[in-house]
Amino acid sequence: MSFYIYYYFTKDGLSVPKREDIKKILIIGSGPIVIGQACEFDYSGSQACKSLKEEGYEVILVNSNPATIMTDPELADKTYIEPIDPEVVAKIIEIERPDAVLPTVGGQTALNITMKLEEMGVLKKFNVELIGANIESIKKAEDRDLFKKAMLKIGLDVPESGLVSTVEEALEILNRIKLPIIIRPAFTLGGSGGNIVYNREEFVGLVKKGLDESPINQVLLEESVIGWKEFELEVMRDKNDNVVIVCSIENFDPMGVHTGDSITVAPQQTLTDREYQNLRNMGIKIIREIGVDTGGSNIQFAVNPVNGRVIIIEMNPRVSRSSALASKATGFPIAKIAAKLAVGLTLDEISNDITRETPASFEPTIDYVVVKAPRWAFEKFEGADKRLGVQMKSVGESMAIGRTFKESFQKALRSLEIDRAGFGSDGNLKLSSYLSSLSPEERDIVFEREFIAPKEDRVFYVKEALKCGKSVEWICRLSGIDPWFMNQLKELVDEENLYEEECRTSGVNPETVRKMKSLGFSDRQLGFMANRAVIEDLYSKGPLFQKKYSMTLRYAENEIRNLRKENKIFPGFRVVDTCGGEFEAYTPYYYSSYDGENESFRTGRKKIMILGGGPNRIGQGIEFDYCCCHASFALEDEGIESIMVNSNPETVSTDYDTSDRLYFEPLTLEDILHIYDTEKPDGVIVQFGGQTPLRLAKALEENGVKIIGTSPDSIDRAEDRERFSNVVDKLKLRQPENGIAFNEKDAVKIANHIGYPVLARPSYVLGGRAMAIIFDEASLHNYINTAVELSPEHPILVDKFLEDAVEIDVDAICDGEDVYIGAIMEHVEEAGIHSGDSACIIPPITITEDLQNQIIDTTKKLALELNVIGLLNIQFAIKDNELFIIEVNPRASRTVPFVSKTTGISLAKTAVKVMLGKKLKDLGLLKMKKFPFVSVKEAVLPFNKFPGVDILLSPEMKSTGEVMGISYNFGESYFKAELAAGDRLPVNGTVFLSINDIHKAQILEEVRALYEQGFKLIATRGTAKFYNDHNIPCEMVYKVNEGRPNVVDRIKDLDIDFVINTPLGKVTRDDAYSIRQAATRYHVPTVTTVSAAKAAINGLLYVKKNKELSVKPIQEYYKEVE
Description:
By secondary structure, the protein is α/β, with parallel strands linked by helices. Helices cover 38% and strands 18% of the residues. The N and C termini lie far apart (61 Å).
């Protein structure tokens, strides 16, 4: 591999100082975390805020996401946690009168809003300038037809294509371009609405879907380049036409798999120097032609592996999803520098933070390999299409750095936290056991299917195929993966075979272990391979031997660890230096490698290590990264050195200047112990990274790691069912009747004793994984046999389900003597909906003062009895005015950022100070804060990415992100939250009602209010009769199976503006399902619970009456907190 240092390109050497005519800049954020636009933009937005404040500008921020560092009140001068909606942003512009708007660090959301503001004339009216990108360059890059013309003008090749705005136009294009055809909607994120069409039968429906997804009703129909190699360049340009290529990225998967769903590698690995120079030159021509003159861009290329033909796929005229990866891979902070370029600085005037000698006009050169691996959550969405295609479906990603592709590839896979310790051969035997049960012919059919239409576990099928002796050529032909990558993987398998043979004949050889470690193999892999026959035999004996199998695998892993210790086989830590070792690096940003070198140095300062949350996934997202960042900020306040360990490239916690020292490493016991032994910190924080570090707490303590805050034993007392029941009994508190089942017979016995319905779930879960409400014994048997792996090692918990209860969340801090209640949150949805998917309110609006006092008293009792030192979250349920404890989590929760943004008190930062020994009374935090405003948190759900999946909420969490609405009225706050989440509640029009018999009367007055305020009401037969009988005119509409036109026809005809559909308990895929699917498809706001219906009606009627939404920075709200 060759490495170069490039200097910037320039047409003239003029140096002009930064702009002094601009004083105030508005930054538009990206809103909630969604598939295709995740916390990469919290990272880029946070960097931009800091960067512009460094230069002396007043920064105004608008973003709706409370879980981000970006919306911390310290980051911008004024922070509007408001919906990113054209009218709302226009109002903020009218109030604040910024000189400029920076739209390039908020993803596609910010670009689209900016284009809308331009169309509305807002920017011209208030004399607001765009910086970072101009309207023309945005249009030229985002409008598919204009982009195609621009590329052809500079002599570059693009796929044969046609731009259409109607189905009729699309059918004409079909006569010119051969199938398969790729559909690419304009102005969308994450490939939303994109598809590959293979036949005429599917064509019309998929074109319609693409037109619906595009905010300008435009799609590009494009010649298919499926199977070609895909590359990206991150390019930056300043006003003097200096251009640098920050990073090249190559996709492991071929075209046809969205880049967000592909494993990606930096720098590119398979191009010759000449081919790479050609891409560089193209990238420079493109950014100049499009006209991005002060900032960063992402350019995607496809290369034909047969003849080398290069075509340009697209360009993002903004900081992209890949920019965070490129920044972390190179140490070159793209968003930070892009913000400085936007205000007139040039690349040669900006210094490199890491070297402190070189300017930003030096292109980064890296002498290591970076691999990003995506993570999916298909298990959350029953019936979802798991095949990977041109529409992104992954919810998170991990990144790993190593000296070679092999090493970083294996580290990236074990960073995903999917119970894989590398590239297979790790004791996870489910796939290999299944394949070994097939005949060779059947196995080949499975391999062909999985390679031609890949799913999330495709790399493990590759491993099994190589193990079965399939040739590199055979796998490459089916999968489209480049032979260079496949040969690298085959070499890993070859080394495995040699290692296992040596273990069988002469035992484990320390020198061979050293060699295997340099290839990225984990201790678990090496232990398994050295004992493969024994472990596979135990696994084959079934659930009764599950515990022995697990213990043997752990023992084998420990044997390898002990052998390494005896033979001093340890990794060294290398510095990420941006310049290939040519200049000294001053920023302690490390990765591990077994190449004999160690560049890490231990300081003499007091230090604390923070364990992050790893890749985003549903149930463990950006909220925990927020907490980890605040832990680092608190340590800085206390003069203590912070050491961050994490593997997520999207987040602020892995920014090299968030902590004093950063280790970009997998969050496994093996990897953490290496860092701990190197740094020898004074303590480790495990409370803030979600379930990831908590699962490791006990093993870390057993290995001599000092854990600060709540002890692992106290954590276990809260999470172990039997021990916690003893705590509840001791304090004379109430919890739903429950039991723990280690086998199917026990589960049935417990459920029959408690009485149905019951709530069943695996022990030690996050995000309600495999949690379900069970209504009868047959359903329980089905749940056990399909949803969970029940065994003595993995029991399930069975609780009495409290129907129609109100759920409550409390976040608190305990110092061992006193307890500070951050807030009491009331859930909008009733019990049975996962807390992460329910809207919640601060302060509670229906809970009596007596019950609130009872909640406070119970929280204090539990915190002190469990000896919590730091954060604690308790979930309660209120039924028939009785308070029940659902669960206690002595750790950071998903709601910590929401509570912190509402009250202005950073719970995470305060908790760290308590963990370091400070007392709440000394911090002035003994009483819960009071204020006159109302905050509403709403979940953001990804159903639009999974067509066919029912949108009904359940005990299993499905949301990817959250938003916040804040005002002095609950109705307005709820309306804002829904708007921010993507659902604009109507203030007039037609409301469709399909209400179950229990709930009809419960929302009688709300339905009456809709009618009285001029809404047209239509409903299914039973619902219509009920409301007509109560003097509320309501038109009857057919169900799907009753006749035409039916309710689905009315939705498709855009004749319905709001759907209220509340099914009962056991729901079949019938009319109700068809209604919800149609509503999702046509973007009609829909609620499926009576409590959400009441809140929505409250909100829309408030806004209808008051005509417009209020806006106010959170810094102003905090002045009223007492």
